[in-house]
Design brief:
The chain contains 18 helices and 25 strands. The chain is α/β, with parallel strands linked by helices. It folds into two domains: 299 residues, TIM Barrel (Alpha-Beta Barrel), CATH 3.20.20.140; 99 residues, no CATH class. Helix 3 packs antiparallel against helix 4 and helix 6 packs across helix 7. The longest helix is centred in the middle third of the chain and has 17 residues. The two termini are 34 Å apart. The radius of gyration is 23 Å and the shape is globular. The chain binds zinc ion. The site of zinc ion has 5 residues, from loops.
């Protein structure tokens, strides 16, 4: 009689291909799916009764930033609660590659992605490492990780390392050659491609030709060019640039966190697809904007300023005292028109828009913001967005996200605050998968098609040829989901001061055949792999 490590019975299997679901059983052995059939004969060490719930491939989140969280020992619980078993890290130009670990921590710090304290702890608590394999070894020696992680190479990080900082100029021929060498080496170590962050420093200093040169090396290694677009140029021009880079380099294109309302951009992507470009899009299903404690907001303002980039808090305080410095600070503060404040300790101010408070006081928003940056305590939290961004009002959802078969969810969850969660957080991104599922369902999309967008679509795009579908021989990444209860609290149910809200509806999650979550409880098992393309592993 055939023996299995685990059997899943009583499940409604939605296999990730988009095909109609069927009632079937799964037999799992050695981390892989060994059998799928209406009835799987044979004994198993563990039998999991799915109780009629959906049995899906573990979901794949193509857009996250969790490499430092994993290194900091984060439980990554928010992913398991959503049924996510695989993530693509290193997005928006920010990655683990280009220099040694201390340079990487410094880059993350200068870009506002890790606090000064986090940087200090990462250096103190980990041996030095270089490259993806070096990182992978340190992570393994720390006990590993409970979900699969894959990685893009950040163009921003590589450019910053090669050019000796954030330089507003073209790279020299030698510098560009070195960047391409690092891309080739990173791809050989197991990266899925490169990412760019063309709204950020130093990504925004790169012209299209530089990016095409980098993408050519990615194409040679069969990788993806993933881009946080040059959003300052608008929806259409910025996606046109990504399409041009893909078509001229031969690399597949992943458009990162594209806005659900940019109707023409989705059409342009579908036209490019029809011309033969492999292009896909991820979108953040719902966002409240970021909540940043004052110390972290200051770090972000510094990171967005051509003048202050790389400088410290003292330089910021000095800038607050000069008219030019104040103008530069205001220029570098994103989303200030929609900014709210919380944790004020003053009921007259709590949860209100800066705009409204300024009007009440007969001052300008800019003056009020500067005054708060100067005098308010560091515990004050600035909310860049507010609930008003929650549902992307006016979104032609059926024409864009729902109607475009190459679009899936990407949470854009960001690491860095594993040691200090209230310093910087977001309210809805931990619910990306269930929120996407419910939005799509409301738009009339079949559940099997929705699951396909969360599984085999990203798996194909990133060439995870052994994942993203439930099929014999594929990795046993499995989520057991009560689709009727698969949900995330809505705006009326979340507290804006709570960074620990979780999704519900997922009971059991297997990662490479091992239960990382069983009946709603985290098991502590760390069977995640650091994965590369075509079933290969980084380590
Ligand atoms: Zn981004």
């Amino acid at each position: 009689m055939e023996r299995f490590d685990t059997k899943i019975i009583n499940g409604f299997v939605i296999d990730g291909t988009g095909n109609p679901g069927i009632f079937a059983e799964l037999g799992i052995r050695d981390g892989k799916i060994a059998r799928i059939a209406t009835h799987v004969d044979g004994e198993a060490g563990v039998v999991i009764d799915a109780g009629g719930k959906a049995v899906c491939p573990g979901f794949i989140d193509p857009h996250v930033h969790e490499e430092l969280a994993a290194l900091g020992g984060d439980t990554l619980e928010s992913y398991l609660r959503q049924g996510v078993t695989t993530t693509v890290n290193g997005n928006c130009g920010h990655s683990l590659t280009g220099g040694d670990s201390e340079q990487i921590y410094t880059y993350m710090y200068e870009n506002g992605l890790a606090s000064a304290e986090a940087k200090r702890r990462f250096i103190a608590e980990n041996p030095a490492w270089t490259g993806l394999k070096g990182y992978a070894k340190v992570l393994r020696d720390r006990g590993g990780v409970n979900i699969n992680m894959s990685f893009l190479l950040g163009h921003g990080t590589i450019r910053w390392c090669v050019m000796g900082g954030s330089k507003d100029r073209k790279p020299s021929e030698a510098e560009l050659a070195r960047m391409k060498e690092l891309i080739a080496a990173g791809m050989d170590e197991g990266a899925m491609g490169i990412s760019t962050g063309l709204s950020y420093i130093p990504g925004r200093y790169a012209d299209t030709e530089e990016l095409i040169e980098c993408a050519k090396m990615v194409a040679e290694k069969d990788g993806v060019y993933a881009s946080h677009l040059r959003m300052q140029d608008g929806f259409e021009k910025s996606i046109a640039e990504a399409i041009e880079i893909g078509e001229r380099s031969g690399a597949r294109v992943q458009v990162s966190h594209y806005a659900p309302r940019a109707v023409e951009g989705y059409r342009m992507a579908m036209d490019a697809r029809a011309r033969g470009l492999e292009i896909a899009i991820d979108t953040i299903p719902k966002s409240s904007g970021h909540l940043k404690r004052k110390d972290r907001l200051i770090q972000f303002i510094i990171s967005a300023s051509n003048v202050l980039f790389g400088k410290d808090r003292a330089a910021f305080e000095a800038a607050l005292k000069t008219p030019e410095g104040r103008a530069e600070i205001l220029r570098s503060t994103r989303f200030k028109d929609e900014m709210l404040i919380i944790n004020t300790g003053d009921p007259a101010l709590e949860g209100r828009a800066l705009r409204d408070i300024a009007a009440e006081r007969g001052t300008t928003l800019d003056e009020l913001l500067l005054e708060l940056l100067e005098k308010a305590p560091d515990t004050l939290t600035f909310w860049q967005g507010g609930m008003s961004r929650v549902d992307f009002p006016g979104t032609p959802y059926n024409e864009t996200v729902a109607g475009c078969p190459i679009v899936g969810p990407g949470s854009d969850r960001i690491f860095g605050e594993v040691f200090d969660r209230t310093a910087w957080y977001e309210l809805f991104r931990k619910g990306a998968m269930p929120i996407f599922y419910r939005n799509m369902l409301a738009a009339g999309v079949r559940r099997e098609e929705i699951i396909r967008r969360m599984t085999s679509l990203p798996a194909q795009q990133f060439r995870m040829s052994d994942r993203g579908m439930l099929a014999e021989g594929r990795a046993a990444d499995v989520a057991i989901v009560d689709l009727d209860k698969f949900s995330y609290p809505d705006a009326s149910q979340v507290s804006c001061t709570d960074p620990n809200i979780m999704a519900s509806g997922v009971s059991t999650v297997l990662v490479n055949g091992e239960a990382a979550m069983l009946d709603g409880k985290l098991t502590g098992k760390r069977s995640g792999q650091l994965i590369s393309m075509y079933g290969k592993r980084i380590l």
